[in-house]
Amino acid sequence: MTIANLNIVPFVSVENMMKLVLDIGVDRFLTDLAVYIEEDFRRWELFDKTPRVASHSHDGVIELMPTSDGQLYGFKYVNGHPKNMREGRQTVTAFGVLADVGSGYPMLLTEMTILTALRTAATSAVAAKYLAPKGSDTMAIIGNGAQSEFQAIAFKALLGVNKLRLYDINISASRKCASNLKGLGFDIAICTSGQEAVEGAHIITTVTADKQYATILTDNMVGTGVHINAVGGDCPGKTELHRDILLRSKIVVEYPPQTRIEGEIQQLAADYPVVELWQVMTGKVAGRHDPSEITLFDSVGFAIEDFSALRYVRDQLLHTKRFDELDLLADPDEPRDLFGMLLRQAAKDAA
Amino acid sequence: MTIANLNIVPFVSVENMMKLVLDIGVDRFLTDLAVYIEEDFRRWELFDKTPRVASHSHDGVIELMPTSDGQLYGFKYVNGHPKNMREGRQTVTAFGVLADVGSGYPMLLTEMTILTALRTAATSAVAAKYLAPKGSDTMAIIGNGAQSEFQAIAFKALLGVNKLRLYDINISASRKCASNLKGLGFDIAICTSGQEAVEGAHIITTVTADKQYATILTDNMVGTGVHINAVGGDCPGKTELHRDILLRSKIVVEYPPQTRIEGEIQQLAADYPVVELWQVMTGKVAGRHDPSEITLFDSVGFAIEDFSALRYVRDQLLHTKRFDELDLLADPDEPRDLFGMLLRQAAKDAA
User: Fold this and answer.
1) What was the pLDDT predicted at B90?
2) Is B349 a catalytic residue?
3) Which residue of B has its CA nearest to A5?
4) Which architecture characterizes domain A8-114+304-326 according to CATH?
5) Over chain A, what is the mean pLDDT?
6) What does the pLDDT average to over A270-287?
7) Do A14 and B22 lie within an 8 Å CB cutoff?
8) What CATH number belongs to B125-301?
9) What is the CATH number of domain A124-301?
10) Hey, is the C-beta of B101 within 8 angstroms of any chain A C-beta?
11) Phi, psi (deg, nearest 5) at residue B53
12) pTM for the complete prediction?
């Protein structure tokens, strides 16, 4: 990719993102993206980190999630509006920007609704690599909405999980998930309760969508040695696990200041001990140290994962044509002459 | 404007923004925009306000400036990199988004480099309407870079200022400014010092660009009764006025928590009394109450001004074609079936 004009920012539309994902293949996209996420978590201390900047309203939330590694700056705009689904809209939509810290110029604008689904799944699978029991091949997925297939494919690509046990309060969602995954090498069971879904599962993924305190998993459903990948509880007032499960688990989080507000651990005291995922990845803190241990990845989604995803997409554009050129930045011939640019446009229009 | 598809966000490119401004006319654009800004300042207390979210680096800063009135949400991305000019880039570039609080869906993406120049000038002129001496017709502009012409046109359109006294350390900037304003009804004097520029001026606008403590105005240059429109000092470590001027002035600011960090008043104690512009507009606090009073608008630029500008541009799109349709939001037929959207794209590509 060479962008000749300073005014141009490459833009990846929804259609181009789909084509990019299909060009690369969903499983390889997730595997490659996981490498970028691991790279960034391993240099965690270097990042400028801040909890997301949220604007809450009656119907939902709009958030900005910025971060920087000192060379690149990224942010994501993301909303969360549970009622949207009833109006034919997405609960969550997102877009993001990567920029050059040296000049402050944006380098990439991209849709991130699809990309967020991919990075969320890749992050879950990366965490599970360090936390799930060795030889895990069976995963329960409770909540079979928009994120479920991505989770399944990421866990297959990174961990070799090929047996799925699906449960959703709406069985048509489970059927949709099973149908979408057909031909991808999964052995799939559709279950009629959460209890049934977790039977024999090494990994339990909870990824439901309602914005309320819920108990998707009760204490008795969680046996020793499992890994829980709790994805759905991701804002204040939205949790999925019974508190007693947390007390029996090694809790791993992305960024404690954010997770204490948004994650499952909002049910616990503000100083309850948790481990940070980057500490596990870098070996500062042990991951799973005992086959009988219950591990819990209390995922809420952090800005650095979006940053990794933006970096990954930007790198793909070097050798694909899956972007448009967006005339986003004013670029007068003489930087101090912004008004003269208007005058020249007027002269051009008049000619 | 009717946008049929939920995936589409209207996008105003730099070229379309220029055409929109030229369609409307710079002076009418500024006058109309000033009405939106006044509307929003008059309902100031209703807004969700936060100081900008800044990421500082050696060479500059990248900022996100969000705000919401409960119905609409807006944010601006803006950088400030003084070194850019030496590399043929803009010191400041910006873009912004307006979104619907109810659904979280973006409603507008627009360039904001030009739009920021316009809203900054419109805000200065609105403030001066309340603060400048009655019958002001002469303005000194110290610093004749990218913002200078916009200031001149805004003050002419809103206050009737038609005599300009220009000064810049680089006289070619003054000549550029004078040349760009030719034929617009100004009587223009190019001055060889700041001292010369302020002679006989009712209003003194300082709008220099260097990121350092500077003294563009010394105390003896400011006589009784003038209004100072201090636009250039707008980040930590960047000021333009000698501290003694501040101590003699009625200081009016946009949003104290931000201005105390970024404005001229960073030179004063954190509790030094200042007046908020919205208080003057709504009559809660008197504006100029004495012809001999020195008034100072310590402008740094606040998110609500960008919000007003986004609202204004959005309203213009209802009756112009100055936008493109951006495929920014994933919009699967069935909201819970994001993965199925990928599968359908694959089927389409294969057909």
Assistant:
1) 84
2) no
3) B89
4) 2-Layer Sandwich (3.30)
5) 93
6) 96
7) no
8) 3.40.50.720
9) 3.40.50.720
10) yes
11) -95, 105
12) 0.92
